[in-house]
From TrEMBL, chain A:
Keywords: Thiamine pyrophosphate. It comes from Dyadobacter sediminis. The keyword Hydrolase does not apply. PANTHER family: PYRUVATE DEHYDROGENASE E1 COMPONENT, TRANSKETOLASE-LIKE PYRIMIDINE-BINDING DOMAIN-CONTAINING PROTEIN. Gene3D superfamilies: 3.40.50.920, 3.40.50.970. This is Transketolase family protein. CDD domains: TPP_PYR_DXS_TK_like.
Length: 317, 285
């Protein structure tokens, strides 16, 4: 098992803020919009240096999406930011008509996704956003795994023409990917090559998958771990290549098991190569209040759960 | 263009509208007929449009020109006809309205790359927000072009409209003129009965807009005067709202003033009766 170490823990939303700071200096067309959550989205450095390219929208997310769509007419690259719940479910029709169907170059950047938002509870913990966004034709859906990758993804999507949903989170987690990485949209990242089971993980679950890989190794199981940071377009080639080798699959995501990464992978398997698949995901329920660690344990989203799922998958081969 | 010429264009646009809706036996003639005079006045007289050899040249960014957005996308027939008659695309294409493989979808879209359309609309309440974004884009680009956006009065019942109404004065978007088509009708009946908007002028004023009224929204001279006045008030830190009083179905006597023709197509006899009231001035498509 390839060794992954870290010297610090950081939140992925700060990676977004750092990416925006850099974009503000590099790309004069980048405009940031926010619906009264500037601090949570870590936008202060961007706003300080580019006050004329920041648009405060107040608590009016629907209008923010429409204004973003309009800004693209004239060549601006709007980054519309708020919590993932308010960036997707609340404004689904606005995204559908004014952004996706109209093919506007809007970047919807969503923080506090999933259970790890924590104590605020289920009203704010969206677990359906990946599903909603990936169903929109033409939408690119990205869920990076740590601070460095989120920063790199933020910078990369500015150069990608078309609508993007970028999802990140609130808790501090290990920073284990390279600071100087180049983010390639739609290209899965091989975390560890293995032969016994393919673990496809996204977002915060990638670090859990690495820990699971180490535990499995101690038990003599050689897990292949792949970071699917781009849910759509899915790197089908990487999925199939891995499955050819391992013959069974675990998918891990901080999302409802319905409509997320697991279902995207399952579609590839059903069409191309039938192998056993086990889901590590929220089992079609809402979340609740608690610390991120407590919630991930209660809802079955830890390294331990991935280990158990891997064993089940191997047994079903 | 002289008023008489503009009225001739409007008569042809009205013929196009009823013929398009009749041909596919669906679509929205009422609001389209009511807003014909405004769209003709804008596209044939008041808007600054990028042109080459007397024909408009369309590109998505619309740099240096005025832009128009239709928020109440169901009145697409009047927009399609006006764009075609202005030279954005061949008038023959009007015959494809709402038919399979057409660029003239039931509601306007960018998906089929129809010249003149910059955003999809139809799901109501979104156009003002989009127009505000386009207006701010122009400001960031130091582009002097003006943004025009038309909404329905029934559409004012959508919550997003009021998010946008708060946003515009706060950000001093003063390169934008918004219209509300006050025809007093929506699908289920008169607007005052379905969901009374009460005094929209006072509401927008309270939100910080400058509000003017065009009482005769189907009179070309009154529209031109109103547009001139609206434009003269731009650039002073406030967005402009024009309350445009129109008659739904204007120009066809049996369609006028009733919500019944909001989204109903005429049959063969009704088409003949309607065309008998509208002079063919530029040649039918």
């Amino acid at each position: 098992m390839k060794k992954y170490t870290f010297t610090e823990k950081k939140d992925t939303r700060s990676g977004f803020g750092a990416g925006m700071h850099e974009l503000g200096q590099q790309n004069p067309n980048v405009v940031a919009l926010c619906a009264d959550l500037v601090g949570s989205l870590k936008l202060e450095p961007f706003i300080k240096e580019n006050p004329d390219r920041f648009i405060q929208c107040g608590i009016s997310e629907a209008n923010m999406i429409g204004v973003s769509a309009g800004l693209t007419i004239g060549g601006k690259i709007p980054f519309a930011t708020t919590f993932a719940n308010f960036a997707t479910g609340r404004v689904y029709d606005q995204i559908r008509q004014s952004v996706a169907y109209s093919n506007k170059n809007v970047k919807i950047c969503a923080s506090h996704a999933g259970l790890t938002l924590g104590e605020d509870g289920a009203t704010h913990q969206i677990l359906e956003d990946l599903g909603m966004m990936k169903m929109l034709p033409g939408m690119t859906v990205i869920n990076p795994c740590d601070y460095n990758q989120t920063k790199a993804a933020t910078i990369a999507i500015a150069d990608h023409e078309g609508p993007v949903y970028l999802r990140f989170g609130r808790p501090v987690i290990p920073v284990f990917t390279a600071a100087d990485q180049k983010f390639e949209i739609g290209k899965a990242w091989m975390v560890n090559e293995g032969t016994d089971v393919s673990i496809f993980a996204t977002g915060h679950m990638v670090w859990e998958a690495i820990q699971a890989g180490e535990q499995l190794e101690a038990e003599g199981i050689n897990a292949e771990i792949i970071n699917i940071h781009t849910i759509k377009p899915l790197d089908e080639e990487a999925v199939l290549k891995s499955v050819e080798k391992t013959g069974c699959v675990v998918t891990a995501e901080e999302h409802n098991r319905i409509g997320g990464l697991g279902d995207s992978i399952a579609q590839v398997l059903v069409k191309n190569k039938l192998v056993p698949q086990e889901y590590v995901a929220v089992n079609d329920s809402f979340g609740e209040s608690g610390t991120p660690t407590q919630l991930m344990e209660k809802y079955g989203l830890t390294a331990k759960d991935i280990v158990a799922a891997a064993k089940r998958a191997i047994e079903r081969k | 263009m002289e008023i008489e010429q503009l009225e001739k264009v409007a008569s042809q646009v009205r013929r196009d509208i009823v013929r398009m809706v009749h041909s596919c036996q669906s679509g929205h003639p009422g609001g389209s007929l009511g807003c014909t005079d405004l769209l003709v006045a804008l596209y044939f007289e008041r808007m600054m449009l990028n042109e080459q050899d007397g024909k408009p040249v369309f590109d998505m960014n619309g740099t240096g020109e005025d832009l128009f957005f239709l928020s109440n996308g169901h009145i697409s027939p009047v927009w399609y006809s006006t764009l075609a008659r202005r030279g954005y695309f061949p008038v023959e294409e009007l015959a494809t309205f709402r038919k399979l493989d057409s660029r003239l979808q039931g509601h306007p879209t960018t998906h089929e790359h129809l010249e003149g359309i910059r955003i999809a609309s139809g799901s109501l309440g979104q156009g003002l927000s989009v127009a505000l974004g386009a207006a701010m884009s122009k400001k960031l680009n130091k582009d002097k072009g003006i943004i025009y956006v038309l909404m329905g009065d029934g559409e004012q019942q959508e919550g997003q409209v009021w998010e946008a109404a708060s946003f515009a004065p706060h950000h001093e978007v003063d390169n934008l003129i918004a219209f509300i088509d006050l025809n007093g009708q929506q699908i289920d009946g008169p607007t005052v009965k379905v969901m009374n908007n009460r005094d929209l002028g006072k509401k927008y004023e309270a939100f910080g807009w400058e509000v003017i009224s065009i009482e005769e929204g189907n009179d070309m001279a009154a529209i031109l005067k109103g547009l001139y006045e609206a434009k003269s008030r731009l650039g002073h830190g406030r967005p402009i709202l024009v309350l445009l009083h129109t008659g739904m179905g204007f120009g066809v006597d049996f369609m006028m003033g009733s919500h019944k023709w909001h989204g109903v197509a005429p049959n063969d006899e009704q088409l003949a009766a309607a065309l008998g009231q509208l002079e063919e001035t530029l040649g039918d498509y």
